[in-house]
Structure formats: C-alpha cells, structure tokens
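Preliminary data (for renewal application), magnesium ion complex.
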Amino acid sequence: MKKILIVDDSSTIRKLINYILRKKDYQITEAEDGIDALEKLINTKVDLVIADLNMPNMDGIELVKSLRNNFYYIDTPIIMLTTTRDENLRKTAYDAGVNLFLNKPIQPNILLYKVESLLEEKKNV
Ligand SMILES: [Mg+2]
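Predicted structure:
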C-alpha cells in the first residue's frame, strides 16, 4: 500500500484531503507543519507528499528544500497545494523541487488523478 503524507496547518484541509484519498487504498499520515512533517518522516517512509505552502514554524518551501536534501526523499513526488496565485511563489516552489503546484480549492478528481499519475511515473523510472 502506498503511503502519503499530508502536511497542512489546517485540520479541515487535512481531513478533506484524507477524505478524498480514502477512495483509493493509500495509507495516510498527517502533519501540521514542516517541522512536524520532518519528525513524522523519521519513522515513516512515504511515497508521496502533499504539502501546503503557508504554515507556521516551517513553511512548504522550506520543507521541500529539506526533503530534496535528504537521500531518501530526493525524488519523492511532492504536490504543493496553496491558495496563492503568485507566479513568483509558484516558480520558487518548482525551483525548490515540487513536482506539481495546485491551487486550492481542491478539485477531488484532479487531486486523485495527479496523485495516481505521480506514483505511477515514479514506479516506471
Ligand atoms: Mg496554511
């Protein structure tokens, strides 16, 4: 079973993503910010990360940079979900190493499809 980490400071958003992904057989771990995510990743290796951009303590960009510097997460698919439509932030996110930058509100079918395709691509590499 594929493992997915959801990182968002909003518990409502985490619940929503969890609910969407529950349609498929994924094992979900939740974290409330970048620091919490890194702590959870010490004990759980995940196949894909869905991260918010704006979070306290450690934001999504810092989290992505940190993951890309970690041997185990160099090429793990990362989807960034955010309300911002700022083009510079989108570029910063891609430069930091996200695979996909999606705007909230979340469209369930698109999220499911993207998650599946990214996991599929990873498998075929
Ligand atoms: Mg947030």
